[in-house]
Give the backbone structure.
Amino acid sequence: MTSFFEKGRAFFGRETFGLLLLMAAMVLAFSLASPKFLGLANLSSMGFQAPLLGLLTIAMLAPMISGGFNLAVIYTANLSGLTFAWVLLQFGGPEAGMGAILLGTVAALIVGATAGAVMGLVIAYVGAHPILVSLAMMIFLRGLGEFLTKGGDISGFPESIAVLGHGTLLGIPVPMILFGLVALVWHILLRRSRHGFAVYMVGSNIRAAEYSGLNTKRTLVAIYALSGLVCAIAGILMLSRFNSVRVGHGEALLLITVLAIFLGGIDPFGGHGKVAPVILSVLILQVLSSGLNLIGANQHLATAVWGLFLVAVMIVRSERFQESVQSFTVALHHMSKPAGGKS
């Protein structure tokens, strides 16, 4: 048994292997609790629901690795979705053609990237704390969105938009394909590019990064601009999923993205983290949500479980807990040796 865990950690990595075991345990528990859990309907539902949380979590990922934070992910997505909706309505709403859809997509991506870039500029050149900057941007975007929409919903879009939120390709939900592509690009960007190297350097020690010759200011602007770009993609997906746009859509997901980030092993102080464990953490949270729903758990109880889950994650990530686990593993390894065996 000890050899199995050691080989698993060596092959997948400690973070990823632990999350795989957790997900396997949760899937087993919920499948025993409800026969419908592994049914096609529930698996398809999870495939449509998880990508939105996944995209917002990826948008939070690079800022966290760099030692920062982006509290404005939800409202950046909302305003990008509003931009997309506004362009479509200018070209006839339900009658808008593919040209209008492409123009709206580009406009939404520009708005999202611009909102992120503004945060990055203030953080990099003013030296303000990322939490305060992103909080200010969140308040600004929320107020601007409510002013533009007067607090109401905007609807009336082409039917072709629904394919992005509700369609399938070879039996795979289109939102899941979109999420997978974005996650793959982010993995390559963070692990195989100069920008990714700079992100980790900034998160580890921004002063040392500056002394080594890295343009940390440009890196910070790029980090938040790319974060805003992913928020825009999430906003477009949100519009296609709900067939409407409203400021505040997905507001409850903000804290869940933070939970997914911590569960995925991202160091809140920056400098450490990978895309794969974060993807697994998103899937785990979706499994938990769907499982609780299937067994008839009250929504308020589910919210309480999220909080307990976050506390548990912080305990598991603590140095004292890690030392205790390591000591237990060493003791178990010694106990498994036959008496009189060589050390």
Observations:
- Strands lie at 154-155, 168-169, 172-173, 244-245.
- Residues 2-26+38-333 form a domain with the ABC transporter involved in vitamin B12 uptake, BtuC fold (CATH 1.10.3470).
- The radius of gyration is 22 Å.
